[in-house]
Amino acid sequence: MHRQRAEGLFSDAQLTAMGWADSGKLCEYVDGFWGEDVRPDRWDVHRQVAKDRVTGLWAAGYLTVRQSRPGRRHFLLSEKGRTAYRLWTRAKRQGLVRASAADNSFGLTAKDRRRYPAMSEGRWFKGELQPEADGRRGEPASAVEPTAVGPGADVAIPASASGVSGEEGARRAGKPPSGEGSTGRGYWLDLGLQESQAARLGWSSAHADAVGWAAAGELFFDSDGMARRVTARSRGRGRRIAAGRVEVLVAAGFLTPGEAVGDGRGPVSLTADGRRALAVWRAHSPAPVARGRRKEREPLAPLLEGKESRRREIARREALRASRRRSKEFAAAWEVYAAARDRKEELDRQWRAENGILNPTRKRPAS
């Protein structure tokens, strides 16, 4: 008995847009909504996304938006969106559901969609920085604040409204901290990346502690390959650290073991990715991931847009190109083999016909 698949909650195009948001590739500029760098086999391939599709997902509560810099908004899946996307794609792979033929409107009206202030229409969130004009840093927009449907908008918030002052208040108000320069371009470019990197680290508090100990010069591998924390107050060989915890941090490119010194201990130091990861962890304080002792051995994702991430991406693309080369070589060799086989079969058929042989399996004698 065949199971009847349920009609999809999302269309394929909506699932694609949500997948790009899950990967941090869905953005909005003044010329519309775009999926950035969406081809795994080619660099800098971007796809434009229909405005109604993105604003519908936002209004239905599946997307949240933040300003990464003036003139650029960055979409991420909300908690509701992450749950729906992962459950739905899993059910779709198992054949339990199918995508709808057209985008789901989620019962939204045109007024609901208009609550999103699209930059292409010259509309802005309240307190949001507009793109620079005449080389000057943009000023906070005075546009009306939209009524949020679903998760609403996670954008720059005026410090007076948040009750936060100082450097943190300036950051939330959409202003670079003091000393960042008059335009703040570097600040805005880096702030959005910092938030994305912190959200995707996936560290437990124990992982963060181990990276902090390495930064303080307190983490070592002893002569037996055991990770230990050695401080000025430590007695003996120091405190033993779970090996799996340090190994996954090394594999993800955050830590690197050094050569053993005279006492047989090798210091564990931070890589460039590790220093950046520790900085964004401390600056943005993401919620630690709960991991037991066994789960601490599970692989960690490398730093988003870090050196290890780029190295893996280059290796993956190179492996993809090598696989395609092998496929082409195999296809060419198969064509040569098939042509030779067909030629031989044709000669055998002609020989049987000339000699009146009816057995179709008889072959020509070797000449």
Topology:
Elements: E1 6-11, H1 12-22, E2 26-29, E3 32-35, E4 47-49, H2 51-59, E5 63-69, E6 72-77, H3 79-93, E7 97-100, H4 110-114, H5 159-162, H6 166-172, H7 185-200, H8 205-215, E8 219-221, E9 227-229, E10 239-240, H9 243-251, E11 255-257, E12 266-270, H10 272-284, H11 307-354
Parallel strand pairs: 1-7
Antiparallel strand pairs: 2-3, 2-6, 3-4, 5-6, 8-9, 8-12, 9-10, 11-12
Give the total of domains.
3
Give the helix tally.
11
Helix content: 40-55%
The main β sheet shows up as: 5 strands, antiparallel
Strand arrangement, largest sheet? 4-3-2-6-5
The low-pLDDT segments are 1-5, 134-185
Question: Measured on Cα atoms, how large is the radius of gyration?
Answer: 29 Å
The fraction of residues in strands falls at 5-15%
Structure explained in plain terms:
- With 367 residues, the protein is α+β, with helices and mostly antiparallel strands.
- The protein folds into three domains: 6-198, no CATH class; 201-305, no CATH class; 306-367.
- It contains eleven helices and twelve strands.
- It has helices at 12-22, 51-59, 79-93, 110-114, 159-162, 166-172, 185-200, 205-215, 243-251, 272-284, 307-354; strands spanning 6-11, 26-29, 32-35, 47-49, 63-69, 72-77, 97-100, 219-221, 227-229, 239-240, 255-257, 266-270.
- The strands form three sheets. It has a five-stranded antiparallel β-sheet with strand order 4-3-2-6-5. A five-stranded antiparallel β-sheet has the order 10-9-8-12-11. A two-stranded parallel sheet has the order 1-7.
- Helix 8 (205-215) packs across helix 10.
- The longest helix has 48 residues, at 307-354.
- It is flat, with a radius of gyration of 29 Å.
- The model is unreliable at 1-5 and 134-185 (pLDDT under 50).
